[in-house]
Amino acid sequence: MNYDVVVGLEIHAELSTNTKAFCTCSADFGADPNTHICPVCTGQPGALPIINHGAVEYAIRAGLTFDCDINRYTKFERKNYFYPDLPKAYQISQLDLPICVNGKVELSTGTVVRINNIHLEEDAGKLFHDDFYGQSLADYNRCSVPLIEIVTEPDMHSAEEAVEFVSKIGLYLKYLNVCDAKMQEGSIRADVNISIKEKGSEKLGNRTEIKNLNSFRSIQRAIEYEVKRQSEILDNGGTVVQETRKFDDTMGTTSSMRSKENANDYRYFPEPDIMSIVFTEEDIEEARRNIPLLPHQRVDKYINEYGLTDEDARVLTLEKYLSDFYDETVAIYPQYKNVSNLFQTEIMRRVKDTEEEVVPISAEGFAKVCEMTDKNIVNRNDAKTIIRIMFEEGGEPEEIAKANNFIVVEDAGETEKFIEELLDSNPDLVKQYFDGKTNMFGFFMGQTNRALRGKATPTLVRECLEKALDKRKP
Ligand SMILES: [Zn+2]
């Protein structure tokens, strides 16, 4: 039978504040285990939380960006559960009055995904179950790192739409400077709710929830597997059990974890140690002022102000750090189109697939290479070599150009003289050219470029060669 797929998401995004949500410990990723902890985030008796207002402001920024209403009154709850990664045995979260409600995000398919709410909460620690002689180890550095959870309505209809949604949210959070969105470090994770229903039917089927997916690929595969599994159950007349399942990345399969819990199971109750917050219009306006240009606005700017094509503007904004680097370069050397060309061919391919998300050369240096190329001080091929050397060994472009004899000192007289001699000593090739073998032109160009390396640009060689051939036209 044919089924409609229904997908909803809960995205957890770690906020990139300096300190944690409810204490002043560092929220940085990657420190030695249990070095960023204190009595508050490890839940010692009598320790009192203090809210990080920066994290609250980040949540408002995200809400405004995704078209949410900001609740003028917001408060926190305790979500109780016991697990060794959570020493307090409860998580400070929000249930009744989250900071942001009723948002939406449009996908390229035209589907509008409604956002039910965005709430602020704290992360739990991390357990390592590897081979520690049968033991597990706990690292509480991540305890109380601020998170926003973005909860959607079940508005997506395929694995592709879910992946696009997560990737769009990640990109926008990066542009907002509120989350680094590094899935491989777990700073964005998604819980996926999946159900299927008879094609065209209004009645939703029983859903399963798959927890903690932390790559686009696992989101895609988990949904595909679950759709197939649920379809087979319904085809055979069975009923899908509403439950929480886990995804096995190696096998590409899901398996039952526990029966689906609901809010009551967590015995939510008001957090007595944190005051509720009332936002003024000024608070919200301040967050709005902190929203930088977003990807679609940068695309508009690149097209309308910089005169780039739609395609170039789209490619340049796919990653924030690349778009930032391009912006820095054109701020120094505003030849938008030329910088874009050299950037796409020589910089983007070198940093593609690296995890660090940095361009390891300076924008000043790159601007200089663009300028030297435009002014024919170095030829394009040598410019590529200069960039390669800057990437591999570092150094200033002008020094590299000098050291490698790349600086072109144009000598039109010598160029003409060389070409005259070249054509005179190859009369048969010249004849072939006029007999219609036009690729001879390229041959003459190549010979000249090679011989006059550093003394003529390809543009000059082309001009002189055209002139010299013209004279010999039979
Ligand atoms: Zn702490």
Protein architecture, described:
The protein has three domains: 280 residues, no CATH class; 111 residues, no CATH class; 60 residues, Arc Repressor Mutant, subunit A, CATH 1.10.10. The strands form four sheets. It has a nine-stranded mixed β-sheet with strand order 2-6-7-10-1-11-12-13-14, with helices on one face. A three-stranded antiparallel β-sheet has the order 5-4-15, with no helix packed on it. The termini are far apart. The longest helix has 20 residues. The chain has 474 residues and is α+β, with helices and mostly antiparallel strands. 39% of the residues lie in helices and 20% in strands. The model has no long low-confidence stretch (mean pLDDT 93). It is elongated. Strand 6 and strand 7 form a beta hairpin. The site of zinc ion has 8 residues, from loops.
Topology:
Layout: E1 3-14, H1 53-65, E2 69-70, E3 73-74, E4 77-80, E5 90-93, E6 100-106, E7 112-122, E8 126-132, E9 135-139, E10 146-152, H2 159-175, E11 188-198, E12 208-213, H3 216-235, E13 243-248, E14 253-259, E15 269-270, E16 277-278, H4 281-289, H5 295-304, H6 310-316, H7 320-332, H8 336-351, H9 363-374, H10 380-393, H11 397-403, H12 412-424, H13 427-434, H14 440-451, H15 458-471
Parallel strand pairs: 12-13
Antiparallel strand pairs: 1-10, 1-11, 2-6, 3-16, 4-5, 4-15, 6-7, 7-10, 8-9, 11-12, 13-14
Zinc ion (ZN) binds next to loops.
